[in-house]
Structure formats: structure tokens, C-alpha cells
Amino acid sequence: MNASTPLIELRGLEKSFGKQKVLAGVNLTIHRGETLVIIGASGGGKSVILKHCIGLLQPDGGEVLVDGTVISSHNFMDVQTIRRRMGMLFQSSALFDSMNAGENIKFAVREHNPEMTESQLDGMVVEKLNLIHLSPDMQTKMPSELSGGMKKRLGLARAIAMNPEILLYDEPTTGLDPVTGDVINDLILDMQKTLGVTSLVVTHDMVSAYKVANRIAMLHEGRIIFIGTPDEIRTTTNPHVKKFIGN
Ligand SMILES: Nc1ncnc2c1ncn2[C@@H]1O[C@H](COP(=O)(O)OP(=O)(O)OP(=O)(O)O)[C@@H](O)[C@H]1O
Ligand SMILES: [Mg+2]
Predict the structure, then answer these.
(1) Beta bridge partners of 11
(2) In terms of pTM, does the model score above 0.85?
(3) Residues 198-228: pLDDT tens digits?
């Protein structure tokens, strides 16, 4: 696809769970290289949007395009190929508790690259830890030995293990103190700069949104009701947005 094709595009995305309509026609375009942040109330459907982007959920209506290809239709068989281009930092970190940090980072890489030797995998782990500014010693730690912030960082090291073009972050700073949260914000900026990734971040942390976003979109009652730069959102007159961002 050519460079002007949006890397991710959501067209009229609709999703209900039982009688509850969570997404009521979400339209959103994410351009190559940008960091787009989706804000919105708890339970509003932010995580549901991310799950559609990586093909973990199928929409009831509308479509998801990645690099110009519709990935949301039932006859699209290549979800694995698309997913390989993405890394996701889950809201709960989703680390394997029975594996140490190094094994967590290696897991998917080993599955997809059976030809890689253990020493190549070890090298990959050190390289990824280095990108997240963690020391190689960290590999032997078990997830249960790590603080919340360190778990997020390890989750990020795992998300970048397959050299994704797209990084999806689900509430990367939620539950962290402001200083630790800011370390994560800096890493999100770092990933954009050093890896050139395109990022979609969902959060209700406005400090984080302002810091990492090129553009911010607000999800409200199942639709995107605002999209603009951090400066534009600060000065918007939209009452729902103003109420949410607190000015
Ligand atoms: N697999 C599912 N089955 C049934 N309901 C679901 C499912 N996934 C999400 N929901 C519902 O959809 C709504 C939106 O959930 P979602 O997790 O996307 O919210 P969110 O905006 O990410 O909230 P938070 O900020 O608390 O993480 C919630 O009411 C949730 O209960
Ligand atoms: Mg969520």
C-alpha cells in the first residue's frame, strides 16, 4: 500500500454485547508514524476498540482496515499475519506468571522463528530490554517479583519482541504513581522515535494523553465525538470533552 494509506482505519464500527451497544459507529483513522490516543470513560469501549484492531473481536457492523486490507470480514483468513505486525501492551500486562522475564519476551519469537538458536534469542532479549532501558540481569526475574511499573516495562519489551510496526497500548499508566507513569510515557515517545512505530494508546489519564499524543480522540456513548491535537482539545467548546478533561 502507498504511504498515504492510513495504517489503521475504523469505518462505522458497531459492537454490542447482548443488549448493550458498546460501539455505535466508530470512525477513526490512524496515520503512519503517529501516536493517537483514545480517551473516554471507564466501560465506554476503549479496550473493545483495541481488540477489534488486532482481530480478537469481530464487529457487528462496519469494518477494520489495516494497511488498506479489511481484516474484520469473516472470510479474511490472514489475521495471524496482520497480528504479527502489531504488538500490544495489555491493560493487565498479561505476562506468563510461570516464566521468567526473559522467557516471557522470547515466547512468541520462538514460536514464529523455529530456526532461531537460543543464543540468538538471548541476544534479542538483551536488545529489547536495552530499548526499554532495563538491565540484562532483569531476565531471570519472575513476574511476581516485579513492581507494577516493571511489569508494564516487561510487557512493553514483550510487545516489541517481534519488531512490530504498530503498537497498541491499553491503559499503559493506569494504576502507576505519577513518576512511574511518566517513565512509561517517555518509553512510548521513545518507541515512536527510535522504532518509528505507529501507536494507538487508550487511556483515561489526561497527563499521559497530553504528553504522548499527536492527536487525541474522545469516545463518548459509542462514537468518536472529538479528534484533534492536544492544543485543540484544550481549547474545545464541546461540553462532553470539557467535562472529561476537567477544564
Ligand atoms: N467479551 C465481552 N463480553 C461481554 N461484554 C463485554 C466484553 N468485552 C467488553 N464488554 C463490555 O463492553 C463495555 C466496554 O468495555 P471496555 O473494556 O472496552 O471498556 P473500557 O473503555 O476499556 O473501560 P476501562 O477504562 O475501565 O478499561 C463494558 O460494559 C464491558 O462490560
Ligand atoms: Mg479498558
Answers:
(1) 63
(2) yes
(3) 999 999 899 999 999 999 999 999 999 999 9
Query: One-letter amino acid identity for 53?
Result: C
What residue spans define the domains of the chain?
1-85+166-247, 95-163
Output the CA 90–ligand 2 centroid distance in Å: 9
Cell representation of residue 237: 467548546
Quick one: cell of 175? 494504576
Protein residue with its CA nearest to atom 2 in ligand 1: 17
CA–CA separation, 105 and 111 (whole Å): 11
Measured by CA distance, the residue closest to atom 31 of ligand 1 is 43
Nearest CA owner, ligand 1 atom 5:
17
1-85+166-247 folds as: Rossmann fold (3.40.50)
Q: Which residues contact 113 (CB under 8 A, 6 or more apart)?
A: none
10 Å CB burial of residue 50 (0-12, 13-18, 19+) is buried
Residues in contact with ligand 1 (CB, 6 Å cut-off) = 17, 22, 40, 42-48, 91, 171, 204
CB contact at 8 A, 178 and 98: no
